[in-house]
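Predict structure. Chain length: 294.
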Amino acid sequence: METVTAVNDRILALALMAAVAGCSISRTPGTTMPTTPRRPVTDEYHGVRVVDDYRWLEHGDDPEVRRWTEQQNRFTSATLDTIAARPQILQRLQAISRSTSATYSGLAYRDGALFALKALPPARHPYLVRMTGPDDLTSERVVVDPNTLDSSGSTTIDFYVPSPDGRLVALSLSRSGTENGTLHVYETATGRALNDTIAHINDATAAGSVAWNEAATVCPTSMLRDTTVPSTGARMAVWSKLSWACASTAVSCSTTAAAWASWVCATLTSSLADSAAASAASTAACAAFTLATA
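Prediction complete.
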């Protein structure tokens, strides 16, 4: 998820470019645009030859590329510095980017409570709030704020799912833009985190999900659709996480899981049947899993 700061910076840059485009720009005497040598590299894709003249610029650590970048920066600064109104434009755009106008997304309503992800500059990431309804913002309370959980600003909420009664919320937290999220469960009234966590509940390419049942217990549905894990050990690890989740107090599966439990067992059995040992392990795992959810 892109941070609020990153969005504001991008808007600021685009607005500054638009403002500068409407201004008269003159170059400082003696400054000329640096030259960029062409060094053709040809690739062939399905019989089509593609020439790239500037691939050498992709090597950012190369001393020559660094010198080129420094020359470009000096030329750009010298050009922009000639705009008389630039300081006023920058000051106005910075003031707009620091405005306190909030945006809400990912709305979910549960048993008299409205949940939403709130983005409010200068906070870097959206945070989860709870209120009685959209017309009563005075009732808004923060449930989970990743900006306070991690002072470095590298933690963000991937997704969240409130329980049917709104008493608990399951959400995925990931760090440093990896989107490799860990599931956490929080009390919505107090913001207190429960002890239960499930790692790798969210993935950068496949995303993630969880589902609550009527007893306010949650199952990691995103793990159930992971049918691409190639190795026996890895697949058993996936089953182990499911089994652990279903044996936990706050994060558990109930008898309503019988339908998809059999699906998981069938998936494991078919994928592990490449050897007698794997088949036996799968059968034992499925029997224990079925017993745990019965």
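Summary: Residues 1-28+59-99 form one domain.
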